[in-house]
């Protein structure tokens, strides 16, 4: 049931927790008083009465103060991050947020990066040695610098590179500070160094600022950049350097001869410094000497690296918790507030979460820092089940709980709680103020009661006064000063002077949960039997088929006669608006994904609608829905029936099953921006290519693994991603932070990833990774060109080969012909010889004689003719 109904078995343990502690304090005081009474007769008579009264009163007062201190301690929402989130070393020495939004921590065994979900260790495999103390800061180009006794390193992608600088070590405590104008000031063993972007080559150039002659000691330590002024620990003194001169603060200025490790400036302009092993010193505006601040803890309990928040409050780490100082003084945040362990470091990030580094307990995130505060049974309330809340004109608060009603008054930084004993300890579901200032109380099992403002006297109402119900779930006064009570036996009403009640006979005598008066004067009532309205004294029922559900659990009255309706068994929220034909019903207008039980619907001083659900609180500002839950600082996600109240100062009180929460939003400097996606790892094949621009990969590296994060998102668990590979393709939504693409074909690709917070719209704020996968060698252009030219080459080769063979054959034939010709010539010559000689004697024969005769005759003929 929505009211978290109590039983005897349930009430007893919830009630006995705080009550037992109160009884213990009282019994201890009584035993001490009796002990003192027994001792008193044995003391000397002179001054014995005065001494005894003084001791008794002092002890009792101390006990009361101690008890009150426990009862008024408020609680905050701390989330602890450790080994389960990948943080393998749990001693956090320094915390830093880089320009992208990642949280970096320096531990006793190296540095880690938190991406909003898990920590990743950076050590020798990433190019940087492990160290027990490392300073973190921003380089002139906006990248990350890490320094320590191991030197100075710069992060590129996911790999660190050591910078070639003259100095050997960097002060790890606030030793790296950027001015946002392209300069980074570093405290080193060589003094103060200014790092800037090199003009003539890539990288940085370092310039050492000479140590002032009056300074004793060497080196520079903590650094604070304050506009155009730079404060830094110089040797055993403190230096303030501006564009004109350097001022030295030393022993004459109230500082000891020690190294200054940390320097901060608060909202009032006061300068705070922390000297090695001596704690804090303060230089107030207009003063010339530092002084010891008035602290609520011993000086030797201070330690670690101090910080400031956006409002300029000083945050001091200590062995006893975290100290916060503002205009109202010091506030100590320790185990009683939910912070456990010794504090070493503190940082407020740009999203206004406060990160607290602990000794051996990891990293704590203060959720809802500056906005949310909670109270539970450990803080003095009778029960963690909190129902209706009534803020009063004097600043006090009446709170109905499962263990009775409690009065809260502001004491210091918190509310101190006192049980309203005159009511007993029944479960109080409703608390309302009457026009004359009396408080009316609705209980479970005991009906309704009136507590007079003049003397606190309580009057209970039962059947004698016409109130026949036992469970009064909701009480409301309307503009006519009528008192309406929703009960398990129907709806009751009473008029001034509120001595008798009458049941509304026109309504069913079953359970009613909620009552509301619309701005037009219409009275609305809802419960198990549905939704009813009363106009001019006439009650009527709204058709159940027009609503999202039959059982109404919450009603909220808006402007212009609008009524908001929430349901007990699902269905979400409906909005009813007056129209010419009756009431127009807008069904299911709740925040997307919220269709469960609605415990309350009410408006704050700014006109925002608050809807209490079993998964936190939803808000509607007239344009869009918002959401708060335990991740934001709400004490518990499961709200309770009517557990809402809005103060005139903007404070909102919310009752849950895990305590009472207060919320007051503070103006922030940062604008509300959509979450920005950042790639944390890009692995092609087996190679991390993070930081590369438009790379090309071979076919063997055709698989891509992409990890990404939204380091600046307010609610990491509410972030939704979508991605696509290459343009033009459809987006795919996912909650995963890792993508894998295997066996990608050759070609040009572009991986795009976007993120949005919860149910908000996509803003196009995306991360992109363009890359090219080259084809395998057998599909490359040169190989395909070769393959295309190969047939032509073969044909041409064959033609050339055949032509060469033909020419060779021709030359061979010519040679053969020549040889045959020679042989024929020789044969002819031999035949001629044989034909002109005698074979026996070898002498010329008649054929020779005839041939010679013919030649001579021919010659003679030519001669005669001439």
UniProtKB/TrEMBL annotation:
Recorded GO MF terms: kinase activity
Keyword Transferase listed: yes
Gene3D superfamilies in the record: 3.30.70.270, Immunoglobulins (2.60.40.10), YVTN repeat-like/Quinoprotein amine dehydrogenase (2.130.10.10)
Alphabetized UniProt keyword annotations: Kinase, Membrane, Transferase, Transmembrane, Transmembrane helix
SUPFAM superfamilies membership: Calcium-dependent phosphotriesterase
Keyword Ribonucleoprotein: no
Protein known as: Sensory box histidine kinase/response regulator
Source organism per UniProt: Granulicella sibirica
